[in-house]
């Protein structure tokens, strides 16, 4: 009898532990502003006005993503591909954009103050009224051809 009771207790503990893991996993996924599978592949995602403060999006494929007015302050976007993305009025203050591809991106009125744009490719990007104050290139290249 004692053996049966002990086995039932183990089963209940395992079920309770499994239930806790399931709730934790649900909470982590449900609370993320990023859709499933993003990163690395986030093409044409609608992340308008999302709080992605400090998010790790290194090497993410954010092609043609809609990030209008998103909060990406301090985000890690090193090597990210933001080709054709709408980053208008986005807060990229202190964001790491080293080696990022921003070809043809809309950066109108974006806050890029103190952002690291070392080796970033901004070819054809629209930087009309963007704040580039205090940005860091650390002596690296800065590929422009952008409209200002």
Brief sketch in words of this structure:
By secondary structure, the chain is an all-alpha fold. The protein has one helix spanning 2-30.
Q: Average pLDDT, to the nearest integer?
A: 75
Distance between the termini: 81 Å
The Cα radius of gyration reads 21 Å
State the order of secondary-structure elements, H for helix, E for strand: H
The number of helical elements comes to 1
Q: Beta-strand percentage?
A: under 5%
Sheet/helix structural class: mainly alpha
Q: Which stretches are poorly predicted, pLDDT < 50 over at least 5 residues? A: 16-32
Give the fraction of residues assigned to helices: 10-25%
Question: What is the molecular shape?
Answer: globular
Number of DSSP strand runs: 0
């Amino acid at each position: 009898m004692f053996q049966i009771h002990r086995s039932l207790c183990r089963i209940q503990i395992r079920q309770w532990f499994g239930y806790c893991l399931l709730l934790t996993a649900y909470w982590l996924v449900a609370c993320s502003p990023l859709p499933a599978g993003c990163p690395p592949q986030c093409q044409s995602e609608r992340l308008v006005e999302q709080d992605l403060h400090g998010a790790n999006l290194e090497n993410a494929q954010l092609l043609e993503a809609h990030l209008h007015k998103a909060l990406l302050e301090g985000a890690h976007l090193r090597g990210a591909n933001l080709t054709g993305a709408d980053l208008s009025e986005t807060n990229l203050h202190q964001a790491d954009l080293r080696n990022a591809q921003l070809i043809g991106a809309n950066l109108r009125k974006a806050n890029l103050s103190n952002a690291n744009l070392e080796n970033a490719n901004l070819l054809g990007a629209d930087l009309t009224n963007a704040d580039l104050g205090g940005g860091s290139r650390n002596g690296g290249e800065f590929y422009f051809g952008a409209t200002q």
